[in-house]
Amino acid sequence: MTGMRRRLDDAGTMGYVVVASAALLAVASVVVTASPDGFVDLHIAIAFGAFIAVGELVRITLPGGRDAAPIATAGALGYVLLTRYPDGAAHHSALQVVAVVVVAMLVGVAPHAVVGRAPSVDSMARRVLSIGVAAAIYRGSGLDAEVNTLQDAPLAFIMIGVVLVTLVVDAVVAAAVRAGADRAPFFAVLRNEIRAQAGIGSAIGATGALLALAASIMGSWALPVFVVPLLLTQFSFRRYAAIRESSLQTIRALSRVTELGGYTESGHSRRVSQMAVAVGRELGMSDAELRDLEYAALMHDIGQLSLAEPIPGGATVVAAPAEQRRIAHLGADVIRQTGVLDGVASIVAQQAEPYRRAHDVRRRDIPLASRIIKAVNAYDDLVGESYETQRRLDALERLRLGMAYEYDPTVVESLSKTVERSARLGV
Amino acid sequence: MPELSLPARLYVALVVLGASVLLGFAIVNRPVGRMDIVAILLLLHVVSESLLTRGSRDMASITLGSVTSLAAIPLVGMWGAAIAAWSAVLAHNPEGTPVVKRLFNGAQMSLSAGAAGAVYELLHKGELGLEASDFPQVLGPILAADIVHCAVNGVLVAIIVGLHNRVSPVVVFQGTMARSVMAYLAYGLFGVSLAVLWDGAEVGPAAAVLLLLPLFVARWAYAQYAEEQRAYDRTVRTLMAAVETKDVYTRGHSERVSAASVLVARTIGMREDRVASLRYAGMLHDIGKLGVPTRVLQKSGGLTDDEFASIQRHPVQGLEIVREIDFLAEANAGIMHHHERLDGLGYPMGLRGAEIPEFARVIAVADAFDSMTTTRSYRGARSLDEAVVELRRCAGTQFDAAMVEALVRSLDEHGWNPETVQVFSPPDATQVFDQDRRAFDHDDPASSLVEDSR
Predict the structure, then answer these.
(1) Which chain B residues are Cβ-neighbours of A339 within 8 angstroms?
(2) Do residues A238 and A264 share a domain?
């Protein structure tokens, strides 16, 4: 329960709104559908409900840590779009769709909850809402009766339209929640959200339409047969997400070798990377940029491994500028050796460059990620693990004095806000 | 592709000729009234094959061209399928496929589709197209067509690969079949699903879009995965190489221990996913050495108790670093215990015999082996034979005899050359460290820490 409350806190006001409206919709739909003549075609509902529950059970995490249940979502869309069955028309109402989806979802989530791996509440709420919207458009407006007179080919296109609307609604709601939680600009988050969901989302949508069309002639047998392509998709995504996660964990772990060697203070790279990502998010960086930023922040001191003697305390902020730059370039050279992290290498290479040199009015093209790491690294070198307010304020003051020349003012502003926030939360 | 040999060229010519004759017959006997479907399938086929070549090559398991081929058979029959499959010639390939290869691809796809279609029509009497009422009796002919498609395709390709690489086509064929038989069952399923929707549900070509889209996305995600896996591998290797800059004499040690561990693991028949984990364990086994002061690592002669203790801590410090990496859970034990000895005199915990995790027993042998067979500051590299003698001498007390024998066997089979194990060399390493001193080598069984300390 604490986990759930925490997640809600993180999600901010928008998160509350989404969860509350989904809960309202869920309760209303179950109550209305539970009345004696509110429920039709039990066998179809059971087939789709079971399918959704299983899909929920085999939920995956997408690369970047987003919760997803592709099979459950495709099943729910299929149920929304289903207008014919081999034995006649399928008449279930929009509210019945939501009720079946909600119940199936809870059934599928229950085993996860028992072992303490409950999915994030706001991602479930979001799915209930977007399915509700799809059902309202397609079944609530009478469109389903209308299209039943159509041939299947144009029907397929109408279905694709409904699916698209659903996916967009889902992305917008997700972005609104995330933007609130991360205090990031809405459109930047929406762009990230759409990019992250475009691939799997189109596979989900296509399968949803496929299930409805196929079930119209094959009945429930269509569900296990036509889910196979999506199953392959989900499998590939799971492996992709797993290797992404391992990769991040490994870089995080290996970034600590500099601490072990006594080159840097304990926890330094990790703190720098967390703060850098928070700042980068607030400044509206894309997922791909954030990933490079995180890697670069974790490995920013790797160049110190090539030093014969550790810098006292590992604080590069006290080293001479030329030395700082040399370490930065040594580190970048190491990273460049991988042959696959060139973006990260160039961020690391420029982490010690001043924002602007005195008497030099030309704009210099230092990557935003490098400017972030420079400021955050200096802050952490000055504050370290300390929780003292005075020390934090002193460090920020020192960065502000270097603003406009040494440090990027926008970055320092965002950093101060991040620091204040984490101080308030007592993190 | 280098120049084809004369037999290979003759073979290609024969296949193309055969398929051209088939095409001629197909055009004469074309499924009149269904030529619009043939045209759309042709287009789909080109698109699927073109997108295919862009993905990662090792996912041979989903070649979408075969899906459209198998869908074509019930829809437009053998002649229609043979025509549509020729379109593989037109597939776009970013790397630019030579004309000969394109012709061969088109010809062999067409022959496979024609043969599979002939079997289907032989077993399934009746008109072209699929109705709901055709089920389930149509499944048998479809399965048969699927198998024939798989076999003809496999044989035609195995012969050219065999002729080109001068290996037995039978061996090539067996290899391909072992890898792709499951995939072919899936193609059959997708093919019939597509045909059902197209014809039975009257969805038409939109069905192909709906069915193939998830498959394309799956391929894309798989390609991303493969790419990321490669990046991961290179990153770990490079970072370990950076860590090794502390000591020139151990340069490449991690890579070689990893390689030798894999040899041992394969010989004792370890499961492939565990081998993958062990490979990383071998790579990372000495990461904790970074916590040992350089002065101690490079010290000649005896060590004080403190210094000895700091060396003994390195497996634990290594574990500290890697333990948050979830998928390396088993590797953690290997890293932690790679200096345990069978007789219980090792460190850090003094485990005995079977208490020592399997990974650790493998790494211990690989570690000692590499240490002995490479040059150290205080001695040259020993020969493989000398190293084997030493390992066997210590088997049962220090090493697990089964692992030693497994290593010896795989050395006989695969050979071993420390130079050929690929080593990343980080920049600037040699200038920074002065290594010209006799070092204490904690991995060499001859240094025998245990005896020194007693």
Answers:
(1) 234
(2) no
For residue A85, report the phi and psi dihedrals to the nearest 5 degrees.
-135, 160
Band (pLDDT 50/70/90 cuts) for residue A404 is low
Residue B454 has pLDDT above 60, yes or no: no
Put simply, the answer to whether A260 touches B291 (Cβ < 8 Å) is yes
**How many alpha carbons lie under 13 Å from residue A258 in its C-beta half-sphere?**
30
Q: Which residues in chain A have their CB less than 8 angstroms from residue B242's CB?
A: 302, 305-306, 334, 337
The strand pairing partners of B45, in sequence order, are: none
DSSP string, B172-206: HHHHHHHHHHHHHHHHHHHHHHHHIIIIIS--TTH
Q: Does residue A249 sit within a domain?
A: no
| Domain boundary assignment for chain B | 6-225, 247-453
State the DSSP code for B379. B
The total number of structural domains that make up chain A: 2
In B, minimum Cα distance to A206 occurs at: B210
B452 or A333, which is more confident? A333
A121, A9: one domain:
yes
Mean pLDDT across chain A, nearest whole number?
A: 85
Question: What's the pLDDT tens digit per position in B52-100?
Answer: 544 444 444 446 778 888 889 988 999 999 999 888 888 766 566 678 8
Question: For B106-139, how does the pLDDT look when each residue is reduced to its tens digit (9 = 90+)?
Answer: 899 899 999 999 999 999 887 787 776 776 788 8
> Which of A249, A250, A341 best probes binding to B when mutated, by most B CB atoms within 10 angstroms?
A250
> Per-residue pLDDT averaged across A380-400, rounded?
82
Q: Which chain B residues are Cβ-neighbours of A63 within 8 angstroms?
A: 224
Is residue A288 located within the same domain as residue A173? Answer: no
CATH fold of B6-225 reads Arp2/3 complex 21 kDa subunit ARPC3 (1.10.1760)
Note whether A213 contacts B210, CB cutoff 8 Å.
yes
Q: Which CATH superfamily is domain B247-453 in?
A: Hypothetical protein af1432 (1.10.3210.10)
Token code pair at residue B118? 């002939």
CB A265: neighbour CB atoms within 10 A?
A: 17
**Complex ipTM tops 0.95:** no
Residue A68 pairs with which residues in a beta bridge? A60
Contact A340 B231 (CB under 8 A): yes
